[in-house]
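thread: overnight batch results

M.L. [08:02]
morning all. the overnight job finished for the chain we discussed friday. pasting input first so we're all looking at the same thing
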Amino acid sequence: MAISSHLSCWVVVLVAVLSLSQATAFAPSAASRSLFPARNNVMRNTRTSSTALRMSSGLQGQGAVVLRRALLASAVFAGVSFATEVTAGPKFKGFKRIRTQFIAALGDPKASSGTEASQWGLWREDPGPRGVWLRKYADLQKSGGKAPAGWKFDNNDWWLEEHGLIMEAPEFPVPTGRYLVTGGRETTTVLTVSAPDAQGKQQWSLDDDAKLYDVTHLPCRSARYTPNGGGSPATAKESDFPVAPGAEMPAVQGCNKQDYAVLFVIGVENQRDL
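M.L. [08:03]
and the structure it wrote out:
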């Protein structure tokens, strides 16, 4: 307990130092700030997060989780601040900022459109902190599958995130509409999710020739597991976690696996709610 508390304190110090260093080392010129204010916010946040993630790679256990979650919170906060700026500009006129939500997306990372949107899900809040550690799976079983956060575990269809936390499933499908999405890096653009066609296929497309990879938040990893021979969270290896940013989620013995990209939703059109 004392070691964990001590490490957590150093994590807070590290994040503070990195935040201070980004303000000086990456401060843009006055001309740059006036021309690209929103873009510079994203670039500063991206550089800091990338540096901290590299420095956290040697940390294990709770310290690494605290740091990575702090960075995710920082990225989400930056995304909300960024959304305030871009929705005020002419390019995204007609959109309103919302509290950050998360899309689980399938598709070719190099594609700007596709027909997989019927298989996309939506988390209305970050599912990680609401998750259950793999090592606590026995407790989850004893509770009848009810997690402390109130969601219900499904033995036949379950999710893991990058730290080895069992997550609640997102809502399926993503409602039709137009969304402001970002991966917390350089690209923020409009995602359009169309209504299903006669065959049930649902089109998605990104503006500005953006690719799915461009709006994927790389540190957030997620995968869906379905048993094909006795697999469950009990057959997952805790040693496979945490997962590096951009890497595939680990296989679990006795289960099929489907990796999903994670997109931040920071705005919606004014005429609708999400």
